[in-house]
Write a sequence for this structure.
C-alpha cells in the first residue's frame, strides 16, 4: 500500500496559512493589498479586539462578479499573473493566489462584493461549506474575517497580546498610508479611530496624521535619480529620532518592504549626526522597473532582491547626505505647556474601552505613537511649514554653517554661553572639541600618514582567535601608521604610531585600534576608520570641568562653526543648542503672540 498521499485542499491551505498568516497584521495586509490592486481610493479597516475576534476591510474598488468571487477562494487562483513572463514584471501588490484560501481555512469569512452589475454575498467556515446568495449593487468589496485561528488553537495561543497585535497592524496601515497618500485610509479598533487620512495625495499631510506637527515641521523633502532608480520622499532632521527602525519606511513601487541593506545605508548617511542607538524618521519611495527587482522570495512579499543594489545604495546615500549638509541643524529649545504636551498623543491603551484593558499587560512593550489626528482638522501649510520654510536655513556652499558667536561665559565648567544677533547659544565644550578633533583626525587619516617610532614599543598579548584576526589585518594597521608585527606566541608588538596621535595617549590609542578590529564579527574598513577617529578625538579633547580661557572659548567657537558638521559630536550628541531671541522674549512675556 502506498505511503505517500496527496493532501486534501483544506489541509494544504492550513499549512499554507502558517506561512502567509502568522498574526492579525498578515490578514490586514493581504486584504488591504487586494483592495489597492482593485483600484480603490477609500479603504476602511475595522477591528474588534485587534482583529482577533473580527477584521473587516471595506473598499470602493472595481469589485467582482459571482464566478470570480467563488474562484477567489481556490488555491493559486489569481487575476494578476497569466504566464511565466508576468512573474518577472509584477506591478500588483498581490499575485500568488494563496492569501484568501489560507485565511479562509483558519477563520469564518464573509464576502460582499459588486462590480456594479452583479452583487454577491458569500460565506465560508474553515474554508469549506461555501454559501452564496445575491447582494446589493454597491460597487466595491467588503471582507469580514471572524474568529481567526478558531480551528488551529496552537496558533491562536501564540498570538501576542492585544496591544502588540494592534501595534503591528497600525504600523503596517501607517506605512501603506504613506505609500498611497491618494487613498483615504481609515483604521478603527473597538470603535476607536486610530488613523483617518484624507486621500488627497499630500504626503506631508499624511506624515502629519501619523507623526504630528512637531515632526512634520522637521521633515526635509528629497528626490534624486540615476539610470535605474528614482527616489523621492522625506527625511527627518537629526534631532527627530526614534528608538527603533520602525520609523524607517521604505517603499518600492508602492510596496512596503524591509531590507536590511537599504536600512543600513540610510542610517550610515546620518553617521555622526545621531547617536548609534537612535534612528531617523524616513519615508522613502523607490520607483524602479519591475524587471530589476525580485519580490517572489517569501510569501509575505516584504523582502525583495534588487538588481544593481550598489547604484541604489549610492543614490540614497548621496541624496540624504547632500540634504543634511545644506541645513543649519542647531536644535532650538522651545517651551510648551503641560496641556499642549498631553494633547499631542493618545496612548495605545486608549484604543480599547476601559473594561477591555488587562492590567497585567505592560504598555511599554509597544514603542509606537498611535496619536489620532483628524484629517479634517483644518491643518494649514502655515502650521506644517512650507518647503521654503524648511530650506530657509540653507547656507551658501563653502560658507561656515553657523554664524559667528561671541562667548559670554561658562556655566558648570562645561557649557559655554554665547550669542549673536539671532539668539543665545549653549555649547558643550567637550562635544565641540570632539567634533573639531574628529574632523582633524579623519582628514589626517585620509591623507598621507606619517609614522612616528615609539621610544618603547607596545606589546599586546591576545587570545589565539584574536591573534589570527589581527594577523590578517596587519597591513591595515600599517596603512594607518601602526607598524605591528608578530612577537612570539599570540603576541604582537607595535613599533610606531601616526603623527596625529600625541605620545601621552599613544599606547591607549594603539590598544583601542586593536580592540576595534577584533571586536567586530566582520571587519568593515569604513567603520574601523570612523571608530578610530572618534576614539582618538575623544582622548585628545578638552573635558567637562576643564578650564577654558576667553581666548580658548573664542578659538573653539570659531573653529566649530567652520566644521563640515558642527552640530553633533562623532557619537551623535549635540554640540550646540539655541534659544532664539523670539523664544527668550516669550519666556519673559515680552512677546505674547
Amino acid at each position: 500500500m502506498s505511503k505517500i498521499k496527496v493532501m486534501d485542499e483544506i489541509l494544504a491551505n492550513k499549512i499554507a496559512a502558517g506561512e502567509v498568516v502568522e498574526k492579525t497584521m498578515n490578514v490586514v495586509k493581504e486584504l488591504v493589498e487586494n483592495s489597492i490592486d482593485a483600484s480603490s481610493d477609500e479603504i476602511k479597516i475595522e477591528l474588534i479586539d485587534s482583529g482577533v475576534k473580527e477584521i473587516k476591510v471595506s473598499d470602493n474598488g472595481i469589485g467582482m462578479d459571482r464566478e470570480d468571487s467563488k474562484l477567489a477562494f481556490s488555491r493559486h487562483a489569481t487575476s494578476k499573473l497569466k504566464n511565466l513572463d508576468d512573474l518577472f514584471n509584477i506591478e500588483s501588490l498581490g499575485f500568488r493566489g494563496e492569501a484568501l484560501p489560507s485565511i479562509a481555512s483558519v477563520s469564518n469569512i464573509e464576502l460582499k462584493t459588486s462590480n456594479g452589475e452583479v452583487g454577491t454575498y458569500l460565506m465560508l467556515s474553515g474554508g469549506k461549506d461555501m454559501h452564496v446568495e445575491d447582494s446589493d449593487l454597491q460597487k466595491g468589496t467588503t471582507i469580514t474575517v471572524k474568529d481567526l485561528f478558531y480551528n488551529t488553537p496552537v496558533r491562536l495561543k501564540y498570538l501576542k497580546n492585544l496591544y502588540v497585535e494592534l501595534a503591528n497592524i497600525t504600523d503596517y496601515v501607517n506605512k501603506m498610508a504613506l505609500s498611497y497618500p491618494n487613498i483615504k485610509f481609515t483604521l478603527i479598533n473597538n470603535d476607536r479611530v486610530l488613523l483617518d487620512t484624507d486621500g488627497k495625495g499630500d504626503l506631508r499631510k499624511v506624515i502629519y496624521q501619523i507623526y504630528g506637527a512637531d515632526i512634520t515641521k522637521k521633515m526635509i523633502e528629497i528626490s534624486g535619480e540615476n539610470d535605474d532608480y528614482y527616489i523621492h520622499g522625506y527625511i527627518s532632521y537629526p534631532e527627530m529620532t526614534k528608538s527603533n527602525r520602525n520609523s524607517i519606511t521604505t517603499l518600492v513601487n508602492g510596496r512596503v518592504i524591509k531590507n536590511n541593506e537599504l536600512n543600513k545605508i540610510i542610517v550610515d548617511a546620518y553617521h555622526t549626526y545621531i547617536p548609534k542607538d537612535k534612528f531617523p524618521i524616513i519615508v522613502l519611495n523607490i520607483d524602479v522597473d519591475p524587471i530589476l527587482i525580485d519580490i517572489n522570495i517569501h510569501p509575505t512579499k516584504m523582502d525583495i532582491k534588487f538588481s544593481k543594489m550598489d547604484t541604489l545604495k549610492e543614490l540614497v546615500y548621496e541624496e540624504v547626505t547632500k540634504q543634511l549638509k545644506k541645513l543649519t541643524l542647531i536644535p532650538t529649545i522651545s517651551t510648551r505647556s503641560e496641556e499642549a504636551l498631553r494633547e499631542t498623543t493618545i496612548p495605545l491603551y486608549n484604543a480599547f474601552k476601559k473594561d477591555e484593558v488587562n492590567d497585567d499587560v505592560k504598555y511599554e512593550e509597544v514603542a509606537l505613537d498611535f496619536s489620532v489626528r483628524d484629517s479634517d482638522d483644518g491643518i494649514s501649510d502655515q502650521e506644517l511649514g512650507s518647503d521654503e520654510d524648511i530650506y530657509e536655513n540653507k547656507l551658501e556652499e563653502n560658507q561656515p554653517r553657523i554664524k559667528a558667536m561671541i562667548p559670554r561665559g561658562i556655566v558648570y565648567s562645561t557649557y559655554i554661553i554665547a550669542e549673536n544677533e539671532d539668539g543665545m547659544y549653549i555649547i558643550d565644550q567637550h562635544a565641540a572639541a570632539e567634533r573639531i578633533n574628529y574632523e582633524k583626525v579623519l582628514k589626517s587619516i585620509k591623507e598621507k600618514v606619517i609614522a612616528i617610532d615609539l621610544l618603547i614599543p607596545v606589546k599586546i598579548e591576545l587570545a589565539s582567535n584574536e591573534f589570527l584576526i589581527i594577523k590578517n589585518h596587519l597591513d591595515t594597521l600599517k596603512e594607518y601608521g601602526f607598524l605591528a608585527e608578530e612577537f612570539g606566541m599570540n603576541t604582537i608588538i607595535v613599533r610606531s604610531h601616526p603623527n596625529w596621535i600625541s605620545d601621552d595617549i599613544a599606547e591607549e590609542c594603539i590598544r583601542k585600534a586593536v580592540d576595534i578590529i577584533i571586536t567586530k564579527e566582520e571587519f568593515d574598513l569604513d567603520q574601523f576608520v570612523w571608530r578610530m577617529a572618534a576614539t582618538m578625538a575623544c582622548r585628545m579633547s578638552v573635558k567637562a570641568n576643564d578650564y577654558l580661557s576667553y581666548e580658548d572659548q573664542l578659538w573653539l567657537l570659531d573653529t566649530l562653526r567652520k566644521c563640515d558638521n558642527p552640530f553633533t559630536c562623532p557619537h551623535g550628541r549635540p554640540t550646540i543648542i539655541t534659544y532664539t531671541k523670539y523664544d527668550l522674549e516669550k519666556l519673559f512675556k515680552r512677546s505674547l503672540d
Summary: The mean pLDDT is 79. Residues 162-179 form the longest helix (18 residues). The CA atoms of residues 418 and 582 lie 16 Å apart. The chain has 21 helices and 24 strands.
